[in-house]
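Handout, section 4.2: multi-component inputs.
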Amino acid sequence: MPYFITTAIDYANGAPHIGHAYEKVLGDVISRYQRLKGEDVYFLTGVDQHGQKVQQTAEKEGIHPATFSKKNTKKFLKLWEKLGLQYDGWAETTDERHKACVQKILTKLEAEGQLYKKAYKGFYSVRQEQFLTDKEKNEQGEFGSEWGEVVEIEEENWYFKLSEHTDWLRQTVENNDLEITPAFRKADVLNALDRTSGTDLCISRPKERLRWGIELPFDPDYVTYVWFDALINYISFAGYEKAEGSDLPDFDYWWPANAHIIGKDILVPPHAIYWPCMLHAMGFSEKQMPTLLVHGWWNIRGEKMSKSIGNVVDPDELADRFGVDALRYYLVRDIPMGKDSDFDVERLIMLFNTELANDLGNLLNRSLNMTKRFLDARLPETSYDDEESQKLRKSFTESVHAYQESMELYDVAKALAALNNHISFCNGYLERQRPWELAKDESQQDRLAAVMYHVVESCAHAAILLSPIVPSASAKIIQQLQAEELTSHLKLSDCQWGILPTGHQTGKPKPVFPRIEIEKNED
Ligand code: MSP
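Output:
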């Protein structure tokens, strides 16, 4: 089955931070999980290169916005490569194919009477790039600091008849045709709809104010509003209205998107209001609406990360310091789906050291070492079984089930908890079975073989279930188990007891998760 997944496209007006990295790693984890299930996956991500923010920051640096956004785009590309993201499509909004698609859509909407031009005088937030109304004022009747500099301007602009679609949208949200995960976010959307009803969306910016955007095909004095441009990336790069002979994907095959992964700040109004209404105006039905997967934020000691506070965490540096596996693991392990979490390097180290280095790392190391020492690195035939081993197999079945259930709900943290429970059980099993004593007793050889089989087989399962989260560590485990051929085409549904055949020869153990040791004088 096709599985089309996208993330928000990041503003190319700076370097990627930990929040960007989380969202992209989450997208990669879900994509890899779906591939493991055997789905035909297309993972699209990219950068948002137009708009006032990019133009302003470029001006400050004294360079052209095109040069500036390209320079930043490279930082994102480099980091995604370092973090092992396996994406199929890369969306850059300055791409000619995207521009052509946006212009085609604008032309069609204008011809069909969905757009109109009018003069408007009002307050405008430079930071948020939007006009403000009284609804945006705080209790003191002022525009709060979140809006940055607010200026009063009068100008003619083009509007999209958003208000013609909001009744339809309310129905579509209420019927769950526009699916929003986690479900508690649906209330935010319905509330926002109450605030929006009756208003239209300004979709242009006069070139005197903003040059850095896609020109309106029917009015060359204007460029397209950055959100109207950026949202279209989800379909333009999926092949919507593509040119003859284009190498873009087959839109009819991939659409609608199974998951648009976005942060909670861009759910309303852009993704849950503008976007479905834009699609509806283009002729998409409620059955062709994407599913919105809304994640929470990584904060720093309860505070928002921001350049002005100076608390921005650099994922590139963390990956160099602790390794890609440790960073990927932490980013999806220590944040419940949909909720916020505090980014804490000490927890990154602690979780890596306990759950990966101690629990899984030791299980792997001990299992391979003892198989080598006691059984000549071979898993012999055995007919031995006991209650403890049955319990281990039950724990395995339950953990795979719980893992899968949570992954289906995009709750990676919960899926990992299920897997880690099983790993702990396996370590306890080794302690209780004491293979080092069985090895000394001739009459216990059958039991020894069964015990070693159970733990080595469990390492293979762990590697498979961890492959979406820490793909490179998973590959190393599989390599040490000498199970590459056995697992290369394996699907999640094949992840049942007995992957390793009798007589299987195991490899040499090498630490996959070396403990992170922090020098006293390091912070
Ligand atoms: N360019 C727009 C999105 C356009 S999508 C058609 C944008 N860019 S952004 O760079 O500001 O944010 C990109 C994504 O990163 C958003 O989904 C946002 O929620 C997410 N995050 C930004 N900071 C974050 C955290 N501190 N934590 C988690 N995710 C955060 O919005």
